[in-house]
Structures are given as C-alpha cells and as structure tokens.
C-alpha cells in the first residue's frame, strides 16, 4: 500500500483540511493518508481547542487513515524542529510521499530555494547570527538573510517567499527530508481561500483555523463557524463544550499558569526551556501584576520576543518542560498511534516489519522519556480545561481510536 504523509494540528479540523487530505491522496496517487498530529499543546505555544483524541476522531471521519502523535518536545518547538520531528515520523512510518499546503502551491521553487541556500550555507548562517545579535527575532533574521543572499539575485518566480507562514513550514519540511536522506517525494498544494491569520468571511466554505477560533471566542457560540467545518466536526465541538464546559485557550488556562509562575519564582523559571536572557524576571513581574492573559502579554511583548516565542515559553512553564528535558529527547523514538481506519489497520499489518520506529498503541507497554512527558502533559491539559472535574489518565486508558 502506498501512503502519503501530512503534518497537521487540526485546531480545529475544517473544510480546508478536508480538501488537503483528499487532494494529497489524489495528487500522489496514494492508497491512504497518514497524519502526524500535534498533541494537546501546539506549535504557536498554545493549548489546543479540544484534546488530541477528539481531533483524531475528526481526522478519521474526514479522510485520514492513520494518526500518529507529534511528541510534545517537537509539537511546541520552532518551525525547524517541528518540521524535522514530523518528517522523521512520516519517514519512519514508511510514507512514499508527503504533501503540505503552501502559499506558493508549486514544488519546484522550493527545490530551487533549497539548492540556492545550500550553495551559500556558511554565509547564510553567519548573516542570520548577525541579525539575531542585533535584536531581530529568528524568523525575521532568517527571512532577511534569505532576501539579501537569494531573493535579491533571483527571479521571484524561481524561489519561494519565506515571509509567508505555510511557505516557511514547507521549506523546513523539505530541508528536514534532505537532512535525513529520506526517499519520500515532496508535494504541495496551494492554500485555498483565507490566509493564515485572516478573519472568517461568511458565505464561503473555507476559513483559517485562526479565524474560526477567533470567531468562536468572540461570539461564544459554535453556530457562526458551522459553514466552515464538516458536520461531524461541528457535532464534536458541540459535544465537547457540553461535556467539558470550555475550549482550550490561554484565557482559560491563565489562572493555573499564573500560579505556576508565582510559585516558581524567577530563579526556577530560568531552567525552563526557551526562557532566556533574564526574561524570567519580567515574566514574574507580569504575573504579579496581570489579572488576565491579555494584560500579561501586553507587559511582556517586545520587538525582541514575538508573541509566539513568548507563548512557547509559557507553555513550557505550564508543563514544567526544562532544558534538561529537551536534552533527554534528541530525536523521535516511537510512533504513538492515536487512531486508524480499516485501511490504516491494513497498512500497519503490511508494514509491520518495515517501520523504522516502534508503533506504540499502549503507553503501559513502552518506556520513553518523550512518551512519558507527553502523557503527563495530557493530564495538565485536562486540568486547564476543567480543574474541578479533569479527565486524567486518558493516555493510559484510551486505546487507539478505530473507524470503519
């Protein structure tokens, strides 16, 4: 069986994701779709709207055949590390190809861009370091170095615009695949309709996940987003809010985050992953003053630290993820199976002897620093959603979800 891999967060699953899964399968002429999906905390450093089990069901009901979890240490990392972890898992799962959405929509400019950067790699890396030392964030430093060395001397149609979020991730996917010598063939699809950060536009079926979340939190109702998601997803979201009382967001999690910061104090915050350059003192000061998450971010945000970078720090503070933890998890060491369709189950049977990493369906039977930490994070997520009645131990109690 031939599988195409995709990297997803599904926060939440929407009609654009439905198109992505179906089109990736068709374009690569694959028999099934394998998704590597972030767990309960996401790449932009925020809690997922609903947990990974609910999002797995959404995926399996809408065109995905196997869902593996991208472990916490990669799911909440920068674009390069996020992409590297995801590509290693898709490669280990035996995918013949991988497919990502991009603003560019064509794979050739990505290939050209990789080749051009490789030809000036040393100069490129030095320029990035120079810009970072000047106080520029890493994403902006990368794009400025790229513009100076590559885009300024090339036809814009030949290379990729790395100021756009999906193009950036796509570039890192291809970079990661090249670094491990993967035989997977890359493919890309043009992003449909709304841009990454666009608000929803009613009367159209496509909206970004960011726009959908914003619409929900502003209206406190799922009804305005119904047109943008499959019916099964709409029903899942309604069931979630009835059973759990709230969706995941930093506004909801902030009281527990604030407690964690105040209890730890600046000296302990300095050991948390991504907390650098004395910012622990500012974080502590902000927690003492701010009664809401928005007030907290208004105090901490600066030109040097992007909103996303700060949120990643806060995610690690909330979960207790330290530099020591990160050092103990240098590379993915398992394929954590969250769910499968009948086709997915057949693929696992066929590929059982050829998987490059062990497939883990029950955590009780597997010992790993990465798996153990991702499991503890699931409990912390449950506390954030509903601290009075949290759903604890789900990673050990729920077997992989099966859909016919």
Automatic annotation (TrEMBL):
Superkingdom to which the source organism belongs: Bacteria
Reactions the enzyme catalyzes: cytidine(34) in elongator tRNA(Met) + acetate + ATP = N(4)-acetylcytidine(34) in elongator tRNA(Met) + AMP + diphosphate
E.C. code: 6.3.4.-
SUPFAM superfamilies recorded: Nucleotidylyl transferase
Keyword Chloroplast: no
Keywords: ATP-binding, Cytoplasm, Ligase, Nucleotide-binding, RNA-binding, tRNA processing, tRNA-binding
Chain residues that bind ATP: 7-20, 101, 166, 191
Localization per Swiss-Prot or TrEMBL: Cytoplasm
Chief localization: cytoplasm
UniProt keyword Transcription present: no
Entries under HAMAP family matching the protein: TmcAL
Record-stated family: Belongs to the TmcAL family.
Role noted for this protein: Catalyzes the formation of N(4)-acetylcytidine (ac(4)C) at the wobble position of elongator tRNA(Met), using acetate and ATP as substrates. First activates an acetate ion to form acetyladenylate (Ac-AMP) and then transfers the acetyl group to tRNA to form ac(4)C34.
Protein name according to UniProt: tRNA(Met) cytidine acetate ligase
